[in-house]
Amino acid sequence: MRHATILTVLACVVLSCGVLGGCSPKMQMPSGFVEVETYQRGPYTQRAVSADGVVIALRSETNPKDATLDFWVTAIRDELVNRRGYTLAKEEPAEAANGAKGKLLTCTANRSGVEFTYLVAVYVMGGQVLVAEAGGKSETVVHRLGDIRQAMASLRAGGI
Amino acid sequence: MRQLILASLVLIGAACLCGGCASPQSRYLSYEFGGKDGPPALPSVQLPPEAPLLPPATPLVAAAPDAQDPTPLLTVVEPRKVVYAGRFNVAVGDVAVSIQATKALADKLGGYMLRMTTNTIVIRVPSDKFDAAVEAVGRMGMVIDKEVTAQDVTDQYFDIEMRLKNAKATQQKLLALLEKSQAVRDTLEIEKELQRITTEIERLEGQLNKLSHEVAYSMLTVAFTETRNAPAETRVKLPFYWLGRLGLDELLSF
Description:
The structure holds 2 protein chains of 2 kinds.
Chain A: H1 2-23, E1 33-35, E2 46-50, E3 55-62, H2 69-83, E4 87-95, E5 101-111, E6 114-125, E7 128-137, H3 138-153
Antiparallel strand pairs in A: 1-2, 2-3, 3-7, 4-5, 5-6, 6-7
Chain B: H1 2-21, H2 24-27, E1 31-32, E2 60-62, E3 77-78, E4 82-92, H3 95-108, E5 112-116, E6 120-126, H4 130-139, E7 142-152, H5 154-180, H6 184-216, E8 217-226, H7 248-251
C-alpha cells in the first residue's frame, strides 16, 4: 500500500515534469553552443554559451492584457538606450518558427574600451512575452550572427 | 603724365567707395527670398521633436529689371547660403564612450572633431550629412534638449564676393598704372595703394573661405550627461522588473 502510494506520487511528478518541460518555450540552439543549467529562480528558461563567449538565452514573462508587441519594443528600446546607454544599431522585423511576428533590436555597448554587441528579439505569443537575447564581444558575435538569427527564428512558444 | 596717374588713382578710389557702399540690392539686382520683404529671419529656434531639422532650400531668384513687367527677362537661380548648427544635451550610460562614438561618427561622415572636453564634443560634418549626424547623436541616448539653428548668410556671402571682385579689378588697374609709371614718386604712390588693396583682397578671401567652410560643414555641439545624473522626471520606471534585468550584465554572468 505504502509502495503503491509512493509509486503513484512519483508517476505524477514524472508526468508533470514531462508535460511542463515539453510545453516550455524553446529555441533550437546552434551547434557549437552548450546549454547550461538555468536556475529555478533565474531569469532564463534556456541559456547556451559558445566556447568563445557568445551567449544565447531565452526568457518568458507573463504578458499583461493589452500589452502589444509595439508596447514591449518601445519599453525595451527605452530601457536599453535611454537607461543603459546602449547604442541602437538596427531594428528589424523578426519571425518565430510558428510564424509569430516579432522585432529584433541590435545594440552595441562599450565595456572598458571593448565593444560588445547585444541582440534582443521580442515576441508576444498569447499570454507570454518571449524575449530571446544574445551577446558577446562584437568581434566574436559578428562571426556567429547567422547562428544567432537561426536560433532566434527557431523559437517555439510553450503551451502553458 | 603725373596728373593722368593721379586722376586715375582718384577715379579708382571713387570706384572702390561706390563698390563698398552700394546696397546689396543694387549689386545683386533684387533678390527675393521666397517673399518680397527680403530674407526671412532665421533666428535660433527650439524645434519640436517632430519638426524637420532642415527647411527645404529656397532658390534665389533675380527679378526682372523692370518691376512693372510681370515676365522676367532674366532669371538667375542661386543656391541659398545657409549655416546650420546643432546643440544637443544627451543622457548616456557612459560619457567617455559616447564622446569617442561621436568623434568616430564625425570621421565616418567625412567631418572632423573641432574640440573636446570631458563631457562635451564639438564636431563639424558636411552639411548634406547634418541630418544623419543629428539622427545618430539622438540614438546615442536620451535627448534632454536640442537646438538646431539655420543662419542665412547669402547676403553676407555675395557682398564679400562682390567686394573681392571689385578689389581684384582695382588691383589689375593699379598694376597697369604701375607699368606705365615713370616718376619714382608716382611709382611709390601706386605701390602703396597696391599693398593696401592686396591686403584687402587677402582679408576678403579669408572671410569668403571661412564663410564657405561654415556653409559646407555644419557644426554639432554635443554635451553628454551620465544617465544617473539625468533629471528625475525622465527616469520613469515601468512596473516590469524583468526589463531592468535585460542586457549584457545579466546575460554574460554565470
